[in-house]
Amino acid sequence: MSGVMEEKTNRVVEILVSSIRPFELMIGKLVAIAFVALTQFAVWLIGAFLLYKYGSQMMLEQGTASKAVLVFSQVMDTIGHINITQWVLVFFFYFIFGYLLYASLFAAIGAAVDVQADAQQFTFPLTMPIIFTLVAMQPMIMQPDGQLAFWLSMIPFTAPIAMIIRVSFDNVVQTWELLLSMFLMLSFVLGTIWISAKVFRMGILFYGRKPTYRDLWKWIKY
């Protein structure tokens, strides 16, 4: 959202949309930022793996392991029963599509407004599902097969967090639950990108006044 707003405020976007379609511009920004995030995750995962495999072992042999390294080793041993291949595949699926879901909506908001203050009325409803899921993490960890965890893992706005928690436990998520959640996520993301692209196309050259929900609805219907 900030990146789109910056280009819109500086009028750079007017030059860009004269060469490419607004939809291509939005998708380009989404994909580029996604690769930046994936690069960050790759660095963190590689660093954690190297620390666990070499750093903790060397410190334990020398008797100089800190409490943090010992705790980290215990955590790694505790989660050793998890199907890492399945977990990583599920993680990247929900990360990518969860990111596309929220990023497309925030990109549309950034295209519709001129200043950060005008975006608050639109961003607050989008952050509520994330906040609620974070608050519900403890109950989901205590009962990963409960009704709360199940329904949160099915709702596309909350599934990227809830499903990752559930698949961390053995024999909790059945195959049909995972496939249904992925199908709902994929379908919802495609619809969200289509709607966001319509708002992005109309809002990117919209200046002069604060947009309303009525304006967004008109742009979606165009």
List the helices and strands and how they pair.
Blueprint: H1 2-9, H2 12-16, H3 22-62, H4 67-78, H5 84-112, H6 116-135, H7 137-142, H8 147-154, H9 159-166, H10 175-203, H11 213-221
Helix pairs in contact: 3-4, 3-5, 5-6, 5-9, 5-10, 8-9, 10-11
Give structural notes:
- The protein has one domain (2-221).
- The chain is built from eleven helices and no strands.
- The chain has helices at residues 2-9, 12-16, 22-62, 67-78, 84-112, 116-135, 137-142, 147-154, 159-166, 175-203, 213-221.
| Fraction of helical residues | over 70%
* Largest sheet, strands/sense/barrel: none
Number of domains: 1
Q: Any idea what the radius of gyration is?
A: 21 Å
Which series of helices and strands comes N to C? HHHHHHHHHHH
Mean residue pLDDT: 83
Uncertain regions spanning at least 5 consecutive residues: none
Residue share in β-strands: under 5%
How many beta strands in the DSSP annotation? 0
Give the terminus-to-terminus CA distance.
22 Å
* Number of helical stretches of at least 4 residues: 11
* Structural shape: globular
Q: How does the helix and strand content classify structurally?
A: mainly alpha
Main traits of this protein?
222 residues, mainly alpha, 79% helix
Q: Can you summarize this structure?
A:
The protein has 222 residues and is an all-alpha fold. The protein is built from 11 helices and no strands.
